[in-house]
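Forum > Structural Biology > Help requests

Title: Can anyone predict the 3D structure of 6-bladed beta-propeller?

Hi all, first post here. I have the sequence for 6-bladed beta-propeller but no way to get a structure on my laptop. I'd be grateful if someone could post the structure tokens.
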Amino acid sequence: MYAFLIELVISRISSGGDYYEFPYTFGSWQCCFIVFLFLFSVFPFNVWAEDSPSFISSLGNWLRAPGGVVVNSNTGVVYVADSGHSRIQKFTDDGVLLGSWGRYGSGDGQFSSPQSIAIGNNGDVYVLDYNNARIQHFASDGTFISKWGSRGSGDGQFLSPRGIAVNSNGDVYVADKGNDRIQYFSSEGAYIGKWGVVGSGDGQFSYLSDISIDSDSNVYVADQGNNRIQKFTGDGIFLNKWGGVGWNGRWRVRISTKHINQ
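Reply #1:
Sure, ran it for you. Structure tokens for 6-bladed beta-propeller below:
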């Protein structure tokens, strides 16, 4: 029985995308505590005002290791990539659960550690299915539409993808971390192009971790290993960069819908 409990805990940790080995032998009470901690822990989302550091509310019941969150700007619906539960949950902007879909697996509509999520112009939902090395495309109610990608380094393949974003034309951009590149596709998954190699020069990446797109279709990439943000045109032409060593630990980059007055 205790061996089963330990195996279950390791499986739940692995579903979050990171793998750990336990060098200790657990007693019965320790096994029960570990199972309780990982199977019944709650990870809420906090909501903050954009123009000030004022806390507004907390969202989420029974979320485990959520990997991404996005808001449909037209409807206000909040979509969460609930990585530890291998599902997508949707809420009102004040945290009322509207529905969910998905479970662990590799079939259509199934997930293994969904890590990021994006909304298309028509409200469709694109999910970066991390451990399955693919993108899944759904209607706003969770109806499966299509999928693309597999594990590898060829065009349309991914290694440890970390971020996803959609531009105003509906093109889908993916931060392909393990291959140190950005790939982009049509809204239906047709491969369009790519840019980037490993390195520290302009247009090069080291452990890129997220991606975002502004209203002019410029692409912003969180280049975590190089401690910087890089900015590109939609077809990958380098425009700018900023950051430095003091930016350790950055993972996510998002574009405000409001203009900044300068």
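The first strand starts at residue 45 and ends at 48. The radius of gyration is 19 Å.
Shout if anything looks off.
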